[in-house]
Amino acid sequence: MTTPGGPSTVLHRPGTVGEAVASLTAEVEAGRDVRLLAGGTDLVPALRAGGRGPAAIVALRRVLELRVRGASADALTVGAGVTYADLAGWSLAPGLAAASRVVGSVQIRNCGTVGGALGSANPRGDLLTFLAAAEAEILLASARGARTTDVDGFLRDGPEPGELVTAVRVARPSGPQTYLKIGGRQAAFPALVSCALLVDRVRERVCCAVSGVATGPWRVAAAERLAGDEVDWSTGTAPLALARRFGELAAGGLRAAPPLPEDPRHPADYRVHAAGVLAARAFARCLAGVRRGDPA
Ligand SMILES: Cc1cc2nc3c(=O)[nH]c(=O)nc-3n(C[C@H](O)[C@H](O)[C@H](O)COP(=O)(O)OP(=O)(O)OC[C@H]3O[C@@H](n4cnc5c(N)ncnc54)[C@H](O)[C@@H]3O)c2cc1C
C-alpha cells in the first residue's frame, strides 16, 4: 500500500491507544524515524514538500477512543482525534467552539484535530492560543504510562520519544468566553494576531492569551490582574473604560515579551497594537455591562 510518506514507508494502523503506543515504541526502539498521522493537514503537505519520507507512520484515524469528548461536573475532556468541526458547535464549550470555527476552511476543520494542533505546535495556532488561556492540561501516553503537562511545559519540552497526546482537559466554563482573530485570507493562513479570553466567575478572574506577537501564546498578566481587581464580580460587568485600559495593559505586556521574528509586512508595532485592540474588544464582548456595539 502507498503511504503518505512514500512507497518505502511502513504504515501502522492501530485500533486502540495501546496498539498505537506499541507501534510507536517499536519504531523508536529500532531507531527508525516515525511520525504520527492524524488529519494530515500539516503532515501531508510537509512530507510532500520534503525529500525522503519517514521510515514509518502510525495513523491514528482508526483509534476511536481518541475521538471522544466528554463533560464531568467540573471539566471538559477532548480526545486528540476530535476535529475542529466536532468542536465548532459544542455548546458546553463556547470558547473552544469559537476558536475552532475560525480555523482554515471547511475541509481543514473536517480533518484537522486537537492532537495535530499540539503536534504541530504552531506558535500562532488557534487552538493552542485558546488552550493557553484556559490553562488546559495535556494528557499524554507512552509505554512508560500516562502523564499530564500544561501548555507551557508541552511547548517547551514537546512530547517525549514514543509518546502521543491522548486528550486535553479544560475547566467547565463559568462565564463568557470568546476568541478573536485577525488574519490574511481565511482558510489559507493561520492567525496573524489572535486573542482568547475567558471570564471565570467562580474564581473571579479573567484569563487572556494573545498569539502572533510573542514566541508563543502569551498570557497578559497585568491586564488579567486589573480585571480581577476592577470587574464588578457580583454582576460580572465592567465599564467600557476598563476594556480600553485592559487592552492598553495587554499591549504593554506584549512589548516586553520575547518577540516572534520580525515580519516586514506586519511589523511588531502593528501586531502589538492589533493585539491590544483585540484584547479590549474581547473583554468588552464578555463583560455584559459594556453595551454591544460600543467601540472598544
Ligand atoms: C490550508 C490550511 C489552513 C490552515 N488554517 C489554520 C488556521 O486557520 N488555524 C490554525 O490553527 N491552523 C491552521 N492550519 C493548520 C492545521 O490545520 C492544524 O495545525 C491542525 O490542527 C493539524 O491537525 P491534523 O490532525 O491535520 O495533524 P497532522 O497533519 O496529522 O499532524 C500534525 C503534527 O502533529 C503530530 N500529531 C498528530 N497527532 C498527534 C498526537 N495525538 N500526539 C502527538 N502528535 C501528534 C503529527 O506527527 C504531526 O507532526 C491550516 C492548515 C492548512 C493546510
Automatic annotation (TrEMBL):
Stretches that traverse the bilayer: none
SUPFAM superfamilies in alphabetical order: CO dehydrogenase flavoprotein C-terminal domain-like (SSF55447), FAD-binding/transporter-associated domain-like (SSF56176)
Origin superkingdom: Bacteria
Domain FAD-binding PCMH-type span(s) in chain numbering: 3-175
Alphabetized SMART domains for the sequence: CO_deh_flav_C
Keywords for the protein's UniProt record, in alphabetical order: FAD, Flavoprotein, Oxidoreductase
InterPro entries: CO_DH_flav_C (IPR005107), CO_DH_flav_C_dom_sf (IPR036683), Diverse_Substr_Oxidored (IPR051312), FAD-bd_PCMH (IPR016166), FAD-bd_PCMH-like_sf (IPR036318), FAD-bd_PCMH_sub1 (IPR016167), FAD-bd_PCMH_sub2 (IPR016169), Mopterin_DH_FAD-bd (IPR002346)
Pfam families reported for this sequence: FAD_binding_5
GO molecular function: FAD binding; oxidoreductase activity
The keyword Membrane belongs to this UniProt entry's keyword annotation: no
Name of the protein: Molybdopterin dehydrogenase
Organism per entry: Parafrankia colletiae
